[in-house]
Amino acid sequence: MSFLDVVRRMRGGVAAIAMVASCFAGSEIANAGPESTDPIVIGQQDWTGSTITSNIVKKLLEKMGYNVKVVPVDATAVFTGLQTGDVTFVTEIWMSSEADMAEASLKTGKTVEIGPTGLVGWDRYWYPEYVKDKCPGLPDWKALNACAKLFATPETGDKGRLLLNPEDWGGNDDERIKTLGLNFQIVHAGSEAALLAQVKAAYQRKQPILAWLYTPHWAPLAYKGEFVDLPPYTDDCPKKGFGCEKKAAPIVKFANADAEKKWPKAYALMKSFTMTNDEYGHLTGEIANEGKPLDTVVDGWIAANKDRWSKWTQ
User: Fold this and answer.
1) Does the bond joining 216 to the residue before it have cis omega, within 30 degrees of 0?
2) Which stretch of 10-19, 218-227, 287-296 has the lowest confidence by average pLDDT?
3) Hey, which residues does 215 pair with through a beta bridge?
């Protein structure tokens, strides 16, 4: 029935117009703007890639009219925040290293996994190419003990140093080193930036270093080197002390369990948001190696990918 038909059939004059106006106003409200003006909180973890993906999603949600905040949170506290509702969405949960915490969080029923980012993460032990001249048995992990002193530092004594990610990122490396019988001492960097600074310094000076690096990331692309070949991952490896490679695994998105009901269109965007490993490595490199500001990198990706994200925001 058309607007005029409604008016003709109604005899109440002003009442008729008020009723019609009310119907049409209700239709506009249903189709416009966010479902709630309450802030959506995106948990940003402490690595460069997370700052990029968090802020891309933030700006896309803002284009949809949402009130969005990005809040720094560490890799352990992010699950607590999701469970309490203090954090609404997280763009990156690395199942290669955070699987135990993720699965425990899902069992509470207060969080949900909302699909892959399109990224596949793999955490491994890396050394510069020039190290092989002094430790020719590499990349076989069995060569490490024979070369342990090559990687030693004053703080590790006769043991080699294995420079790892921040401790709260997880990874079961203490058990892995013990099970494999490696004569190495684990030293955790305080942050991703601190770890990469030490890798860069050693590389520039051609000093031996054994460090935890991962893909997708700019560092394995920028520095010539290799990953150690540990025993291949098997499903029963965790039960036997993690004496194997960490498995390559999807990087997924998480949400508070109530998010879809409260912000269904925002939830749909989060579910659709994806990126490739190549894109991710390039974007992190723009910040770390080219010195571009975060906003410049994020805005550049948004400008170059309008055809992709415009479908996600409908």
Assistant:
1) yes
2) 10-19
3) 122
- pLDDT for 10 equals 37
Distance in angstroms (rounded) separating the CA atoms of residues 140 and 158: 21
Residue 206 domain-assigned (yes or no)? yes
Cis omega (within 30 of 0) on the bond before 166?
no
Question: Per-residue pLDDT tens for 75-128?
Answer: 789 999 999 999 999 999 998 778 889 999 999 999 999 999 999 999 899 999
Domain boundary among 240, 265, 289: 240
Residues 89, 115 within the same domain: yes
Q: Rounded to whole angstroms, how far apart are CA atoms 89 and 43?
A: 6
Q: Which of 259, 276, 169 is nearest to 216 (CA)?
A: 276
The verdict on pTM exceeding 0.85 is no
The residue assigned the tokens 């695994």 is 249
**Is residue 287 included in any domain, yes or no?**
yes
Q: Strand 184-188 vs strand 160-164: parallel, antiparallel, or unpaired?
A: parallel
Considering the domain architecture, whether residues 93 and 156 belong to the same structural domain is answered as no
d(CA 94, CA 64): 27
| DSSP track, 49-76 | HHHHHHHHHHHHHHHTT--EEEEE--TT
Q: Which domain holds residue 188?
A: 128-240
